[in-house]
Design brief:
The complex is a heterodimer of chains A (480) and B (93). Chain A folds into 2 domains: 115 residues, Glutaredoxin; 333 residues, no CATH class. Chain A is 29% helix and 19% strand. The longest helix of chain A has 16 residues. Chain A starts with a strand and ends in a 6-residue tail after the last strand. Chain B has a domain of 60 residues. Chain B is an alpha/beta fold and 93 residues long. The model of chain B has no long low-confidence stretch (mean pLDDT 87). The chains are: A alpha+beta (480), B alpha/beta (93). At the A-B interface, strand 10, helix 6, strand 12 and helix 8 of A face strand 1 of B.
């Protein structure tokens, strides 16, 4: 027989102990009866027929946050109680119960304690127990090692993954700010419809913290933008793969590295956000090396290639600002890039000299005689940025100078010129050719304070509308 | 030890149960290893298998375990998987 009132307590709560002597009086006086639920010790409080809620099923269903909580309004089995009071406030309890002299001998006010449903890790455990997942569950045999089983099922990139248990996936989903069953799009190459939940599973495996998850979601949204051409990028025999660049406050909030060794190992956010994107393409999209992924050599960035830009110089516009966003926007950009090419210049003290070094190195991307085929990202170090700044050069000055230096007569570039068969078609011999498309040379800045080294991330040899172009997207406000 | 439950990270196009390694479509041109586990008369049996495989156009390589009482040593397994497209292991005597 359902009671109209319910009281949720735990023994390990001084306020529950304080009010426990009132229970017989309450049970006798409350119209419709009182059910008492105990979260920790069913022998407590000992003066009534308490219900053991050690599994926390009732507390979870009623969304109990504080004990004691007195609920009213349970009319039928399993119903939601619609009114409640929490902790001990004598006046409030008297009004709620209609018992005028209730708790005369007790102090007027005591705060309650936290419900066990909110103990560390417990919300996820309870949610995992009571929640329906869209993804199918795979029960491992008791002798199976959970990490080895992920390898054996083909879910990893060759490195261990974090086993995607329901609890971990729920914690990841809590970082999304989006509904788990929302379909974000179809992941190439299989064009498999992909839910936020599937992204969360792979983000868990990549090692992401829940706070990184909005960045992962945005990276996937960018990858699905037709201009980025993820399907073709995956299938190509070329080296390239998605490079993820994060701008704005979100990069700092999750602790991304834009300084020393920013393109290297060691930072969890950099490492796992980029890896999550790769695992999603592998597991949801079905894009595996040797299958649809036909890369002749690949590049180490296909494990993960993700970094933030150094935005400490207010006079240096970020990549996101170059793409039309504001400094305060958090933006994820994807570029179809290959490994890193170094530019050493420890001698240049003028921007003209430095631009000459940059241009000569930028010319060699893909091949020194192939022009207009691929884009590139020039990664300018803080020390090289200083050389530019001290001479009053902006990023735009640099870019204009690089385009000027990288305009070369076609006769030097055509096939056979200089004794090298590779090159541009002979019909272009009489024209001046640009190494990069008008929107094909991107400039970012990052790195440690010491080192007069910059770098180039060369692009896919299918740039622009016939292949891939750099695509940027702002984090949604709800998840920013 | 309680068993672990994982959520499937894939598009769920394959059954949950782990699948057999894909079978060879044809023996022609394939390299097939014959592993003699060193039980009596195993060699005679595998001689017959070898001649049948050769008729189908397969190249045959012969291997043997040091003793049938123990699992094959790892270097032998690695050599067979590197050299062969398929393997026949003679279990019975």
């Amino acid at each position: 027989m359902a009671k109209r009132y319910a009281l949720v307590v735990k023994k390990d709560c001084p306020t529950c102990e304080l009010i426990a002597p009132l229970i017989p009086e309450l049970a006798g006086a409350l119209d419709g009866g009182l059910a008492v639920y105990v979260q920790d010790d069913p022998s407590f409080p000992g003066n009534c027929d308490a219900i053991d809620d050690g599994e926390l099923a009732f507390s979870w269903r009623q969304e109990i946050e504080i004990v004691p909580t007195l609920l009213r309004g349970g009319e039928g089995d399993g119903s939601q109680f619609d009114e409640r009071i929490m902790g001990w406030d004598r006046a409030e309890w008297r009004e709620f119960t209609g018992i005028g002299r209730l708790g005369d001998s007790l102090p007027p006010h005591r705060p309650g304690c936290g419900s066990l449903t909110l103990a560390p890790g417990m919300p996820e455990r309870l949610a995992a127990r009571h929640r329906h997942f869209g993804a199918r569950k795979i029960a491992l045999a008791s002798a199976e090692d959970d990490m080895e089983s992920c390898f054996e099922r083909g879910w990893t990139d060759g490195l261990p993954v974090v086993p995607p248990t329901p609890e971990r996936v729920l914690r990841m989903l809590a970082g999304a700010g989006r509904e788990a069953d929302e379909i974000i799009g179809s992941i190439p190459p299989d064009q498999a419809p992909c839910s936020i939940e599937k992204l969360a599973i792979n983000a868990v495996m990549a090692g992401c913290k829940p706070e990184y998850f909005p960045l992962v979601i945005t990276a996937v949204e960018v990858a699905l933008d037709d201009r980025f051409c993820m399907h073709g990028l995956l299938c190509t025999t070329y080296f390239s793969s998605p490079v993820v660049i994060v701008n704005g406050p979100a990069a700092q909030h999750v602790g991304m590295n834009s300084g020393v060794n920013a393109l290297g190992q060691g930072n969890r956010a950099n490492a796992t956000i980029g890896r999550a994107l790769q695992l999603i393409i592998r597991n949801v999209g079905g894009g595996k090396p040797g299958g649809i992924d036909r890369a002749a050599m690949g590049n180490p960035g296909k494990y993960t290639y993700c970094f933030a830009e150094d935005e400490s110089d207010p006079d240096w516009p970020s990549l996101a600002m170059d793409r039309g966003f504001a400094r305060e926007d958090s933006v994820v950009s994807l570029f179809a890039g290959e490994g890193l090419q170094a530019i050493v210049d420890q001698q240049s003290r003028t921007p003209e000299s430095l631009a000459g070094s940059f241009a000569a190195s930028l010319r060699t991307v893909a091949h020194y005689k192939l022009f207009g085929l691929c884009d590139a990202i020039l990664v300018v170090s803080p020390e090289h940025r200083r050389v530019l700044r001290e001479a009053g050069w902006t990023k735009e000055t640099l870019r204009e100078e690089l385009y000027r230096l990288l305009r070369v007569p076609g006769q030097n570039l055509v096939r056979g010129a200089g004794g090298v068969a590779e090159g541009m078609p002979a019909r272009l011999a009489d024209r001046n050719l640009d190494k990069y498309r008008p929107d094909g040379l991107h400039i970012v800045s990052l790195g440690g304070r010491a080192g007069m080294f910059s770098a180039i991330i060369g692009g896919w040899v299918a740039a622009g509308e016939r292949g891939s172009q750099l695509v940027s997207r702002k984090l949604e406000e709800a998840s920013a | 030890m309680t068993s672990t439950t994982l959520l499937d990270p894939t598009a769920e196009l394959q059954p949950v149960e782990r699948q057999l390694t894909p079978r060879l479509a044809s023996l022609a041109g394939a390299t097939v290893g014959l592993l003699d586990i060193s039980k009596p008369r195993g060699r005679e049996f595998l001689d017959e298998v070898e001649s049948l495989l050769a008729e189908e156009g397969a190249t045959v390589k012969r291997y043997s375990k040091p003793t049938f009482t123990r699992v094959a040593p790892t270097p032998l397994l690695q050599r067979i998987s590197a050299d062969c497209d398929a393997v026949v292991e003679a279990l019975a005597d």
